[in-house]
Amino acid sequence: MTQQQALSSSELGTLWMTYQQKTMIQRMLEYFIEQAEDNRAKEIMQNTHKKIINYLEDIKNILKNEGAVIPIGYTEQDVNIGVPKLYDNMFDIMFLRLLKEISMGLHTLHINMAYRKDIVLLYKELTSFTQNVYDECVDYLQEKDVLPRPPALTMPKTVEFADGTNYMSGFNLFSEKRALNTVEVAHLYHSIESNIIGMQLITGFAQVANEPEVKKYFIKGKELAKKIVTDNTQLFLQSDIQPPSTWGANATDSKVAPFSDKLMLYCTSLFCSFGLGSSALGTAFSLRSDLPLKMVSEAKDILTYGQDGGKIMAKNGWLEEPPSMQDRNKLTK
């Protein structure tokens, strides 16, 4: 029988990242499940929570078999289940949908970093599971009529080609900028949609954060998300496109924290990483010259904000280090 290969550094790193993310989702779901008033929403979250625990056990077993330490991640100490509701109804599934969107991107990326068959299979299963949960969230939100669709348009009847380089112009002071094309609308709409949820999420975080520095950080993040929504909405209006409306499901007036500052900072960091990736894709596929520069500026603000959060975590001893190549003794018990 052929002996199984040892985990590569890439595989160990991606398993570590997955463990961190899944333990965070596990703890947040525990709170949202307890607060859920809609039976269908509760069922979606309970099923997701159960599967996440199973996958966390799979990761633990892989690491144990390799003689590697189990990450701490996020524990029962990072969630207060019985506190008052921090968000209105529907926010739980809106938030879970966005988390699953992030997870789909991560799992697809991690498959391409895996070489051992059992690790590849793990990420394939996680991808399928995540897609199914995402679909359930979309179906639920559409049934409740709280998930607005991107703007409709008249279907094109002919193929058009750009008439010279003016198609790519976005800074010509002597002529009108062309209207946004559907690819550009898709990326801008996604940015607006994601940042509306992020703004609602971080508003709640700012209300309940324990440390003054953390509270101030979240308030800054709320303003950043608001700026991104405002700027991209303005681009829509310039092309006579209706921007997505807010969905409600706002933060309540509760001042009691359901999550630790450590967990809320990590969650915000995850959203920043997601925002950077989305901005990079938008930059690559936007042909009007003003849009990539705008998205690069947006990405720079997100990066700076995310780094500031990492510094706060490190200063408070909340930043769990990934396994290091320099000190391999840390990887074994």
How would you briefly describe this protein structure?
With 333 residues, this protein is mainly α. It contains eight helices and no strands. The chain folds into two domains: 9-146, Ferritin, core subunit, four-helix bundle (Ferritin, Up-down Bundle), CATH 1.20.1260; 166-315, Ferritin, core subunit, four-helix bundle (Ferritin, Up-down Bundle).
Give the CATH class of the largest domain: Mainly Alpha
Which structural class should the secondary elements be placed in? mainly alpha
> What is the helix content?
55-70%
The average pLDDT is 90
Number of helices: 8
CATH topology of the largest domain: Ferritin
CATH architecture of the largest domain: Up-down Bundle
Q: Name the CATH superfamily classification of the largest domain.
A: Ferritin, core subunit, four-helix bundle
- The counted number of beta strands is 0
Query: How many domains, as an integer?
Result: 2
* Biggest pleated-sheet summary: none
Radius of gyration: 22 Å
Shape: globular
- The H-and-E topology, N to C, reads as HHHHHHHH
Portion of residues in beta strands equals under 5%
Pick out the low-confidence regions: none
First CA to last CA: what distance? 27 Å
Walkthrough of the structure:
- There is one protein chain.
- With 333 residues, the chain is an all-alpha fold.
- The chain folds into 2 domains: 138 residues, Ferritin, core subunit, four-helix bundle (Ferritin, Up-down Bundle), CATH 1.20.1260.10; 150 residues, Ferritin, core subunit, four-helix bundle (Ferritin), CATH 1.20.1260.
- It is 62% helix and 0% strand.
- The protein is built from 8 helices and no strands.
- The protein is globular.
- The mean pLDDT is 90.
